[in-house]
Amino acid sequence: MTVKSKARLAVVAVGGNSLIADEAHVTISDQSVTATATAHQIAEMSADGWNLVVTHGNGPQVGFILRRSEIGMNEVPPIPMDYATSNTQGSIGYMFQRALRNEFRRRGIARDVVSLITQTLVDRNDPAFDAPTKPIGPHLDEATARQRAVEHGWVVKEDSGRGWRRVVASPLSLAIIELEVIRSLVRQGTVAIACGGGGLPVFEDERGELMRVEAVIDKDHASSLLARELGADLLLITTAVEKVAVNFGKPNQEWLSRVTLAEARRHQADGQFAPGSMGPKIEAMIAFVERTGGRGLITNPQNLTRALAGETGTEIVPD
After folding, report:
1. Which of 21, 64, 129, 209 could lock onto 25 through a cystine, CB 3.0 to 4.6 A?
2. What is this structure's pTM?
3. The Cα angle at residue 180 between residues 198 and 212, in degrees rounded to 5
4. CATH code at 251?
5. What are φ and ψ of residue 257, in 5° steps?
6. Which of 59, 63, 281, 300 is catalytic?
7. Does a structural domain hold residue 78?
8. Is 157 a residue of the active site?
9. What does the pLDDT profile of the chain (319 residues) look like in tens digits?
């Protein structure tokens, strides 16, 4: 049973990497355990009166699917990238949908949860198609990455000191095709799990029909767009670190607790946030806070509740 609610609205964007606790826990069962722990934190928000839309990344997961496809391509047809993303919308959505339903049941919360296959409109002529930047798949050593680049025609790049990864085109999100469906669900008090992997990239042809294109939408940018269009009060992005830092990994590293828009813009302009990791998250937050006047919050999944209480995390606020 759903409940109608005028509660505050939060868009919670869960990173695909944050579903993998460490290199020893990468199986689907392991990721499901991590998703369940994150769902416990998200359910705390619901119990505190928040309406919720959950989005999620899929970088490692879509990489696993494509790798399986490469290994088996001599026996079965390969999986296109956008179809791999749709697979993760279903599988990761299923993890959260089941975990949240169980959490709500334990707490006596009468709230439905549903996962949506979500499409994101892009420009077919976006220059991103000529300059791939979005990391997908596991981190590799340089030699392995370069070998697979030769074997499969990949573009590979070093990823913020964490290893080498395949990078693909990541065009700008222009619109969420299923926006009004999501809005309707929110009005009913239903928790919508949407924009998985940033959404499935589509463009309009000359007749206005949607056409598929192989690319990966940045989950944080799509989540920011969705939060802006829904008029959310909060955009919460979970990632691998408890707080955002400047001078990350250096002797003068400084963790940030509260950042104004002006400060966030200055740090971004100074190159403090890597394009393949924290950069898109800060860009997404700047766009959301600037447009809505709402609150942005970045932390890791296990500290979600503490961050909401102001005990940790990095808060991005208007000037």
Report:
1. 21
2. 0.91
3. 45
4. 3.40.1160.10
5. -100, -40
6. 281
7. yes
8. no
9. 334 445 799 999 999 988 998 889 999 999 999 999 999 999 999 999 999 999 999 988 998 998 899 899 889 998 999 999 999 999 999 999 999 999 999 999 999 999 999 999 999 999 999 998 888 777 889 999 999 899 888 899 998 778 898 888 999 999 999 999 999 999 999 999 999 999 999 999 999 999 999 899 999 999 999 999 999 999 999 998 999 999 998 999 999 999 999 999 999 999 999 887 899 999 999 999 999 999 999 999 999 999 999 999 999 999 9
Q: Are 38 and 14 in contact (CB under 8 A)?
A: yes
Q: What are the phi and psi torsion angles at 136 (to 5°)?
A: -135, 160
**Closest by Cα among 273, 252, 253, 274 to 316:** 273
| Residue 3 located in a structural domain | no
Cβ neighbourhood burial of 205 (10 Å; 0-12, 13-18, 19+): exposed
Partners of 258 in the beta sheet? 315
Domain count, the chain: 1
Q: For residue 188, tell me if it sits in a domain.
A: yes
- CA atoms of 244 and 254, how far apart (whole Å): 9
Residue whose tokens read 């809505």: 292
Q: Which domain range does residue 235 map to?
A: 9-122+177-317
16, 137, 196, 279: the active-site residue: 16
Is residue 17 part of the annotated active site? The answer reads yes
Tell me how far the alpha carbon of residue 156 is from its chain's centroid.
21
Instruction: Please say whether the beta carbons of 147 and 159 come within 8 A.
Output: no
Q: How far apart are CA 8 and CA 158, in angstroms?
A: 40
Active-site residue identified among 189, 219, 303, 313: 219
- Domain contains 33: yes
155 forms bridges with which residues in the sheet?
167
The active-site residue out of 134, 137, 300, 313 is: 134
DSSP-assigned letter for residue 162: S
**DSSP 8-state symbol, 72:** T
Q: Is the dihedral of CA 24, 27, 32, 38 positive or negative?
A: positive
